Model the fold of this input.
Amino acid sequence: MITAKQLTKRYPRTVAVDEISFEVAKGQIVGFLGPNGAGKTTTMRMLTCFLPPSAGTASVAGFDVLEHPFEVKKRIGYLPEAPPIYPEMETAEYLKFVGKLKGLSGADLKKRVDYVCDRCAVGEVKNKLLGKLSKGYRQRVGLAQAIIHNPDVLILDEPTAALDPKQINETRDLIKSLAGDHTIILSTHILPEVEQTCEQVIIINKGKLVATDSVRNLQARARGAESVLVEIAGRSGSLEVPIVQHKLEQVSGVSRVLCKQQVDSRALFEVESQKGRLVRGDLARAVVESGWDLNELRPAAMSLEEIFLQLTGNESGETENAATKESQR
Amino acid sequence: MRNAWIICWKELGSYFVSPVAYLLLTMFGLIFGFFFWNALGIFVIEGMEMQMRGQMFPMNLNEQIIRPLLQNVSVIGLFFIPMITMRLFAEEKRTGTIELLATSPIGDLEIIVGKWLAAVVLYSGLLLFTALNFVFLFKYGNPDWKPLAVGYLGLVLQAGALLAIGTFISTLTKNQIIAGAATFGVCLLLWVLEWVGGYESATWARVLSYMSVITHFESFGRGVLDSKDAIFYLTVIFLGLFFTARSMESLRWRS
Done:
């Protein structure tokens, strides 16, 4: 549905977006992830034909953004970071105006206005001035104007920024409910949002594409194999780490054991297993049978946050490596 | 052109929902009313004096009231035009609604013409307000309506030209005050340019004074439809809107 090829935006002093390529299939929700200033908004503006790319191409529903901007604009619903509302207009009046801009008219227009009011739950503020609405309502009106012409593609720039937690949840649910009919790209720098709403992630940093994959694959890729964290305590007040390590390595399916931390007679191990093998039961049995106490056993799923930090900034990744090396010594 | 009408209606809505339109109408009406009252007062006194002296020079409403008043309106207009145009694009740029317009399937030219048209309609509304005063002249006197109509046509054309310049200036900034002040400065300059012609007759001075928007109104004020002056205004309108379109395009490449 959306294709970007070596999409680039250069400014006199900086390169805001640097040769980004990605593809989004029909009906997907894609999270566009990156720290502030990564180039998310610029990329979205190029996809919506607001900004022309300096180099590279992008196409929406098969239409190039430079050659057929009208066709692209007809098929895109766009919610910029600040909802583009006129404070002196009433909600219904505004939605009607946007509908007309997008080419709707007559009975069709009226039907769509009623439909989006219902869908985005702004029916009860239909006759209120937009300037008097709360942030949550403004955001919903913003979403309503984006879907008024039933576009194939929805581009949402930080749709949950500056909302309170309840509004964030409502907005997310709304976006998820829209997914069936529209292909959605939403940008954010809030990671749980991507984990909760998106199937696919595109991570960019400093204008460059860092990763593009499904959320699940990304987690798996960063983790390599499945791993569990095991905390073990010796009963007699002492614990021989090398012996424990050796014992754990002998459990079938285990590929690697790392001692992450040791305090007195307690030690934390990270046990990696081969893909698809469940080793937790065997591990617990082995520990108990050897006469040690099993304090804790939990899967070490890497959150998207860690993956993100690992991919976008090396600092945190390096310190983690250094810590593991030190504990190994 | 349907889209230009949509934009035009929306702009007119903004003018009339906010106090802007009413404030301008009131001020314009008050100022013009004062001018009219004075002009009429002088006319009546002159008429009485002539009768007392026994001289019977023909007195003419068109020459002695309508013409000078229309000249005055064309100058008062200079002060109101920045207030009409300053928000056109500057506000959309500040609030970000320009993104909505620019990502909708309508052309830049339609947006520009729509906004300019709304400004022209509002200004025509102001002029209509002044026309109320002239109704009394027709009721109690017998002026010729044709020069008056030509005069109004001239006023609309002149305003159209200045409004086009104001629309252009409004695309250059996000700040309405800056847009308004710059437009006001340009309007004022275009008015006083004709002074150069008073003491200098070199070519550059003639060109400068030719560029003054006020000099081109004189023929309209007299009730003469001079194609040369009409074309001047139309050219300025065209150039103003053309530069607005270029400015919008460069906005995309720069921002």
About this structure: Chain A has twelve helices and 14 strands. Chain A has two domains: 2-220, 225-328. Confidence is low (pLDDT under 50) at residues 315-329 of chain A. Chain A touches chain B at residues 45, 48-52, 70, 73-74, 76, 78, 80-82, 84-89, 93, 97-98, 100-103, 145 (CB under 8 Å).
